[in-house]
Amino acid sequence: MTDYKKPELLAPAGNRDAVAAAVQAGADAVYLGGKDFSARAFADNFSNDDIEWATEYCHLRKVKVYIAVNTLVADREFERLAGFIAFVNNIGADAIIVQDFGVARLAREIAPELSLHASTQAFVYDSDGAEYAGQLGFKRVVAARELSFDKIKEIVTNTSIEIEMFVHGALCICYSGQCLMSSMIGGRSANRGKCAQPCRLLYKVCGKERYNLSPKDLCLIKHLDSIKKSGVSALKIEGRMKGAAYVSTVTAIYRKYLDGQDKVSQADYEKLERIFYRGGFTDGYFTGKKGAHMICPDKPENPYEKQCGTETVVCRDVKNPVQINCIARLGAPLSVQMTDSLGNSIVCKGKIPVQRAQKKALTHEHLKTRLSKLGDTVFVAESITIDSDDNIFLPVSELNCVRRDAAQLLQQCITSSYRRDSAKDFKINTLSRAKVQALQTAAQISTKEQLEAVEECDFLYIPLDLVLKQNYENKKIIAVLPRISGDDLYYKLRELPVKKALMTNIGQYSILQKLNFDIYIDYNLNVFNTMAADHFSYAKRITVSAELMLSQIRGIAAQVPLEAVAYGRLPLMLTENCIIKSGKSCGAANGISDRTGVTFPVRCLPECRNEILNSKPVVMSDKLEDIKNSGIDAVRLLFTIETPKECAEVLEWYKKGIRPDIDFTRGKFYKGV
Hints:
Blueprint: E1 8-12, H1 16-24, E2 29-33, H2 48-60, E3 64-69, H3 78-91, E4 95-98, H4 101-110, E5 115-118, H5 127-135, E6 140-142, H6 149-158, E7 162-169, H7 181-186, E8 203-205, E9 208-210, E10 217-219, H8 224-228, E11 234-237, H9 244-258, H10 266-275, E12 281-282, E13 320-328, E14 333-340, E15 345-353, E16 355-356, H11 364-371, E17 379-388, E18 392-393, H12 396-418, E19 440-444, H13 448-454, E20 459-463, H14 464-470, E21 477-480, H15 489-494, E22 500-503, H16 509-514, E23 518-521, H17 530-535, E24 541-543, H18 550-554, E25 562-568, E26 571-575, H19 579-582, E27 591-594, E28 599-605, E29 609-613, E30 618-619, H20 624-629, E31 634-638, H21 644-656
Parallel strand pairs: 1-2, 1-11, 2-3, 3-4, 4-5, 5-6, 6-7, 7-11, 10-12, 13-17, 19-20, 19-31, 20-21, 21-22, 22-23, 23-24, 24-25, 25-31
Antiparallel strand pairs: 7-10, 8-9, 8-27, 13-14, 14-15, 16-18, 25-30, 26-29, 27-28, 28-29
Helix pairs in contact: 1-2, 1-9, 2-3, 3-4, 9-10, 13-21
């Protein structure tokens, strides 16, 4: 097998102590978030001063710093965001981690030298998606956690972009970036960094109340040998909301086995369990064997007396090795050159000339001893060379002063080498969309029977496989591509009788473009602002994020027509693992119930995936004037589990603009996230 470069070990940090713990425990890179725009809004997080400190602390020790800017951002926040990205760029952070394509577009515009990493929230799970990200200027993609080792290796082999994968920490039951549950039922958006973690609560499945949405923590420490040979660029530890002891313990143990030791000791494995325990560990989807074994159905009883922050490890004091060259000539000030392993180099000269010794001469050994005393700095002398005249003398105070000044100069040199020129100015777009005079209506159906009830709509979204099966050729039809599309997508699209498709993940773009399809953008691609809409300007129509208020939509000054889902039981989660099967009785239930008795329908998708639907539908049939005022061009009626009769009734509400007498929600149209 090819000898691959050892992957980077990437550790989390929620505060200054965690940064130091990560570096001292052997991390190659650290990721952290600011007070805003971070997907861990409830971590301590970092002020701008903290971020600047962390960047300098890490860079002096040859550790990289990545800043999480991985939430969806509204237009009204872009001025503040632009200032933050400019700050991060100018202090020399190595990359930002991004979910929102509008944020990526902004970063490329104002800070083109700042590297971009596509967050796992960007929903990249195949080679086509990774390549798409690469074409947008991303240097790295954080792959979806639902991927097997074989799939990850396939992506690495078929793409040129760097691939990062999670190896340890909390798992979400839902594909990242596709979860609306916290937002829709709790008012706290995961895509905006405020997840309330409803997946960690009790749910009743198949008559049993258990923690059916709560996965065990991921631990791939025993698979490192395979991972190292895969060509993956970086291994990521989850945990920005955990303390320094957790970061220290997990990072040090992964460092140990990443650097060569093969078989994981039971003692080290127990240390990982002891520092955080959620019913044991899982290797997740890595082996391709998903199922109930990944879930922690019972609230775990901690087998350890102490946990979360009590386990510690002895870590090395990280130093930056330097080469020191000293020249001591009679009559001239002492000259000290100090160079680190990255090529940063300075020359520092003393203030008094070297004298001829009257008594005891200054030997090479004495000079080396004095110049090596760097204990109170970040440096350690790797080698010292002396070029001096014989029989010379300098006061000890002068030797100490030159050494201290040289170390300070080199520290300044290293810090400044990462800093960049000021970022470019960004002009805020303050335009608003004009009121729409006549709304178009689109219906998205799930079954052939539903279609017969809504055929009069202006547009018809129909599942790809149903279009193929029925050979529909109606010009109003737009084929809905599955959010997780298989390897056979190209062949299916090639046989499709229509040339319009609803794109549901970025990996589908290259195929649709190659086959000359009209492309429509779905809401799950999370278009949240004008710059994101501009990114998808090639589309015929964009369905905006389901988490936007009408007032926010009005500020999306894009030229592409906009659509919003104005009716339907929104999918709250898309899961790779079957929730019903994990409840020990596959096919015996069609929903899950929470602790209050509310039932959420569950749809079974191909390959045992699930889609959890909201307990009640969004209804906006009596608010069509508000929708027009927001500048939305078309409303979508999303039909999932409705009968044909119910579909016809819903369509009638929207024709007449009436408020139905049912239990419904307004979604996020009036209340933001």
